[in-house]
């Protein structure tokens, strides 16, 4: 199926923005002249009217500029705040901004950017052809699709995450939503570190999931000890049948002291 998204910069999610605490961020927001409606941007990392959403309401062809100081470290969602905001968000206008602490985050081998979203199509799940938004399903919070990075295949056939045994990976995970909470989980792995709600002050250790609400974010880290295909899911697992699956492909040498089986591994996942 195909679907017409609204976007920031032509991608879902929008660009990953990375700054340091104390930086002054200048935002130049231009609404493409070919668009037919107003758009805006609200940064959860900003302190000020509407996080910028109140001063960036831009008509087609219009540019708005504002600046803010990144006062608090963490990982923050940004999204369109033009009414109906939920309509603009489900149509893809969301992304993440990382405000690093002084000195930066601890070094890891690889970093990945993953966001979960929902689609409220008029036709049932997996109907072929171009789909349109069903506003009543959106208001009733009844998604037809759940997606990582804007597509049911974005992190599987198209662009699986790739890493190697022995590496430590960090996932910047956010929920664009606009409505559904996520219990983010990697099948076959344990998160060594979880920055709950992306708070950098007191990370959790040794957790199975990162509970992340709509419009919120988490940071998870894990050392990869064994090769194979690891599945990214929301552990509300019915959503996997509606598209919400990603793959982390890990290459390297097997260690029988960590995992051992005489049954051939099919890479079909688990649970």
Short characterization:
With 271 residues, the chain is mostly beta strands.
Question: If you had to describe this structure to a student in words, what would you say it looks like?
Answer:
Pfam families: Cu-oxidase_3 (PF07732). Its EC number is 1.7.2.1. It is an enzyme of class 1 (oxidoreductase). It catalyses: nitric oxide + Fe(III)-[cytochrome c] + H2O = Fe(II)-[cytochrome c] + nitrite + 2 H(+). The chain folds into 2 domains: 2-100, Immunoglobulin-like, CATH 2.60.40.420; 110-251, Cupredoxins -  blue copper proteins (Immunoglobulin-like, Sandwich), CATH 2.60.40. Helix content is 6%, strand content 38%. It contains 3 helices and 19 strands. It has a 6-stranded mixed sheet with strand order 10-8-12-17-14-15. A hairpin with an 8-residue loop joins strand 14 (191-195) and strand 15 (204-207). The radius of gyration is 19 Å and the shape is globular.
CATH topology of the largest domain: Immunoglobulin-like
Name of the CATH architecture of the largest domain: Sandwich
Q: Outline the biggest β-sheet.
A: 6 strands, mixed
- Number of continuous helical runs: 3
Give the overall form.
globular
Tally of domains: 2
Question: Span between N and C termini?
Answer: 28 Å
Please state the structural category.
mainly beta
Keywords:
271 residues; 2 domains; mainly beta; Immunoglobulin-like; 38% strand; 5-stranded mixed sheet; nitrite reductase (NO-forming) activity; single chain; 19 strands
């Amino acid at each position: 199926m195909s679907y017409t998204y609204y976007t920031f910069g032509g991608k879902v999610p929008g660009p990953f923005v990375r700054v340091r605490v104390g930086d002054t961020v200048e935002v130049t927001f231009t609404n493409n002249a070919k668009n037919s409606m107003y758009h805006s941007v609200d940064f959860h990392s900003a302190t000020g009217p509407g996080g910028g959403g109140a001063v960036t309401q831009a008509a087609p062809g219009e540019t708005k500029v504002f600046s803010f100081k990144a006062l608090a470290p963490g990982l923050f969602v940004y999204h369109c705040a033009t009414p109906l905001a939920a309509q603009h968000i489900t149509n893809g206008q969301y992304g993440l901004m990382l405000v690093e602490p002084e000195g930066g985050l601890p070094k890891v081998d690889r970093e990945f950017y993953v966001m979960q979203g929902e689609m409220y199509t008029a036709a049932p799940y997996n109907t072929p052809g171009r789909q349109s938004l069903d506003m009543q399903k959106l208001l009733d919070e009844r998604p037809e699709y759940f997606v990582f990075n804007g597509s049911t295949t974005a992190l599987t056939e198209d662009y699986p995450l790739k890493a190697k045994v022995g590496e430590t990976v960090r996932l910047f995970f956010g929920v664009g939503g606009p409505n559904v909470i996520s219990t983010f989980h990697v099948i076959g792995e344990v998160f060594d570190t979880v920055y709950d709600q992306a708070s950098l002050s007191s990370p959790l250790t040794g957790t199975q999931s990162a509970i992340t609400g709509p419009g919120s974010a988490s940071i998870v880290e894990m050392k990869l000890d064994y090769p194979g295909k690891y599945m990214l899911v929301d552990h509300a697992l019915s959503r996997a049948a509606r598209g919400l699956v990603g793959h982390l492909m890990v290459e390297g040498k097997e260690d029988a002291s960590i995992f051992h089986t005489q049954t051939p591994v099919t890479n079909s996942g688990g649970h």
